[in-house]
Amino acid sequence: MNYLAHAYFSFRDPGILVGNMISDFVKGKKQFEYPLQIQKGIRLHRAIDTFTDRHEATRRAKEYIRPAAGLYAGAFVDVVYDHFLAKRQDLFTNQGLAGFSAWVYQTLYDHTRLLPEKFSRMLPYMQKQDWLFHYQYPDGIQKSFGGLVRRAAYLNDAEPAYGLFTKHYEALQECFTLFFPDIQDFALTQFNDLLMH
After folding, report:
1. 28: Cβ–Cβ under 8 A, 6 or more apart, which residues?
2. How does DSSP assign the chain, residue by residue?
3. Which of 186, 158, 185 is nearest to 80 (CA)?
4. pTM of the predicted model, to two decimals?
5. What is the CA radius of gyration of the chain?
C-alpha cells in the first residue's frame, strides 16, 4: 500500500502516522533511534506491506500490471490501491479526504526535526501537489506512476503501466474490493497490539 493507505491505517495517531509514512526511508537499526511511538509506526508499516504482498488479491492485481512494470508491479499496485481507497469517500468522515490530507501534512510538518532527510525534501512537493487527495483522479495516478518510473532502475515510461491500469480498471477494482476488508482487520489488530506493548 502507498502513502494514503499508510496514513489511513495510522488511525489518527500522530506518532504512528509519522513512523508509518517514513518507514521506507529508515533502514535497519536506524528505526531504534526514533521515539517509541514512531518506532511502532515503522513496524506497523512493514507489517502492512508484508500482509499486502502476500495477499492473493494483490498477487492477482500484479499480474495485470506486470507486462509493463516487471519486478516493479507491486509498487504500481500500491498506487492503484491508494486510488481506490481515495475514491471511498465514506471512509473519510467529518472533513472528508481533503481534511484528512491536510491533517496528515500538518502532522508531518509538526515532526519535521524527526523526518529523514530524503522524506523531508519530498514533503513540500507532496503537500503542494496534494498527492493524498489527488490519488482519486486519473492525473494523480499518472503523476504517481511517473514518479515510480523516475526512481526505477530499468523503466523509462509510465504510459504502458497507466494503459494497463485503464484497460484493467474494473478487474483491479475487484482486487481492491476483495483485499480491503482483510487489510482493515489486519491493520487494526496490529495497531491495537502495538499500543498494548
Report:
1. none
2. --HHHHHHTTTT-HHHHHHHHHGGG--GGGGGGS-HHHHHHHHHHHHHHHHHHHSHHHHHHHHHHHHHHGGGHHHHHHHHHHHHHHT-GGGS-TTHHHHHHHHHHHHHHHTGGGS-HHHHHHHHHHHHTTHHHHTTSHHHHHHHHHHHHHH-SS---SHHHHHHHHHTHHHHHHHHHHHHHHHHHHHHHHHHHHHH-
3. 158
4. 0.94
5. 16
- 36/94 Cα distance (integer angstroms): 29
What are the structural domain ranges in the chain? 3-196
pLDDT band at 43 (very low <50, low <70, confident <90, very high): very high
CA-wise closest residue to 51 among 185, 194, 197, 192: 185
Q: By the 8 A CB rule, do 166 and 38 touch?
A: no
- pLDDT at 197 exceeding the cut of 80: no
Q: What is the mean pLDDT of residues 43-70?
A: 96
- What pLDDT, in 10s, does the model give residues 105-138? 999 999 999 999 999 999 999 999 999 999 999 8
Q: Check: CB of residue 188 under 8 Å from CB of residue 11.
A: yes
Cα–Cα distance for residue pair 194/197, rounded to 1 Å: 5
- How large is the angle between the packed helices 36-54 and 56-69, nearest 10 degrees? 80
Q: Give the pLDDT confidence score for residue 112 in this predicted structure.
A: 95
